[in-house]
Amino acid sequence: MSTYREIHGKAVKSLGTDPSATTDAGQIWYNTSSNTFKSIVNIAAWSSSSNTINALYRRASAGPTTAAFLAGGDSGPGPSVSNLTEEWDGSGFSVGGTLNTGRYSAGGAGTLTAGLAFGGGTNPTPPNYQTATESYNGTAWTNSPNGLNTARFVTQGVGTTTAALCMGGLKSPSNTASNDSEEWGGTSWTAGNTLNTARESAAQAGIQTAALLAGGYSTTYSAVTESYDGTTWTNVNSMNTARFSLGGAGTQTAAVAYGGDKNPSALTGATESWDGTNWTTSPATMATARTHVGDFGSSTNAFAAGGYTPSATTVTEEFNSSSTAYTAAAWAAGGTLGTARYLMGGFGGPTTAVAAGGKTPSVVGNVEEYNGSSWSEETNVGTARSALGSAGTLTAGVIFGGYPAVTTTEEYDGSSWTGGGAMNTARGYNGGAGTQTAALSFGGYVAPANQTSVEKYDGSSWTASTALPNGGRQFATSGAGTQTAALAAGAIYTSPSNNALTFEFDGSSWTTGGAMNTARYGGGMAGTQSDMIYFAGDDDTKSVENYDGTSWKTNVSLTTLKYNIGPAAAGTSTTAFGFGGGPPAINNSEQYSAETTAVNVKTLTQS
User: Fold this and answer.
1) Domains defined along the chain, listed by start
2) What is the pTM of this model?
3) If you average pLDDT over every residue of the chain, what do you get?
């Protein structure tokens, strides 16, 4: 019998700690600490990812795992046609340029900076089938003078902006499944060869000269798979589960198909992998079964963005098949506040936070400290107030202003409060950033108007600084950077249409930053000016966004928190913490953990 050394050319190693490199996948070693044999093995799994900005389905989509787009779509019921584009950079979605022709169930091809959208429908029941073709440069969509030869809807696409393929769909005017294919050469469409099975709403993968089409619907649910070599369509082995309106990603020889509507009619999250010859049912299943997802990526890293559940959703999931185990970014429940409240001040971090003041709905001066698992009552503030600014840490915190409009400043040393210098302008609903000895207060509200005034604190007195470009109130207090690198975002600005504005402060002047994807106020922030997370907001939104110093992109959503929360500065955007909120007042808290990865080490056992 052959030995392990004879087969692999090396002996089984004895190691005190497990290797951590993916290049060690397949290697077997003996762990001398646990007295077990171990190996790094492949794992396939779906995990939560950053949500889409808009709840839409039936979107054109395409791109690799770090540069994809979603375009158009349907928000339902009705349908309700969209012209919106969302851009994916590998970690979140941001707002892109709008389609010239709003539509849903169009085909997509290319990448984020060189994309293509074609066909689709433009009005409700029955849809007005389209031939329109548009190209995307990462900023704006441009109409092509040459559309598809056959108007079609719920069609599929693969390829690039210079060599794309449109396959099947429902064609006009017959409203029947099509077996046509068309090839795009960069300026116009020409007829390709016919599919063996007419169908719509199938999964697609590959490129113009090496394409794959699987599943779909004609007169019944289909599991049929066909491959295309640029000239001829050939039937290959069918999927294990017949379904339509499913997602697909990858190449002709390495693809993945997921979700959809299976026979008998039922939404599914099932996943199948294609190796160039056969489909294999994966143990990985989407947590949210759905149809009409935005699909992009590869056979080992694919995405299902939005879709229909049976209503439009923003949920996004990521498929990974590798020797790396992914722990998705998530919000988890923290300890329960002793006093449910909202519009409070907050400072500290996720394991050492302080909640001060707020409304129950009565204005209170209660103070509580958090130790990472539970809250405890501490010495009340000297002046009860709500909608106050705050900054600092557990042992060196500061609160200032508040509503009813006051100038009062109080400093916290971890156990008691002492009076600080009075602000120059009494105000409430003001934003805060910085530390106890270098704090910043910006904006706020003094009846009857929002404020632009800004003040700096040096630990003893406040001095006026450069005003905000727009008057605003209900900024996220605390966690918004430092006195010389602050961020003002998520507020009610003087102009209601500007509620998505962002302003950056360098210690002496304010400049306009990237607009938020979701206009809001009364949320929380944590991090630095160039690496910030914003969470919650008005209308009880649970959406979360990250700022990289230039633009905002989506992240995973909160579970329970609502607007007017108490935010605590966690130092970085990977350990944010929020608590309370309302009205009505709640006592929940949630902590954010960023995505982590590790090699998938398994202990080997006899079976």
Assistant:
1) 13-42+323-330+595-607 (no CATH), 45-314 (2.120.10.80), 338-591 (2.120.10.80)
2) 0.90
3) 92
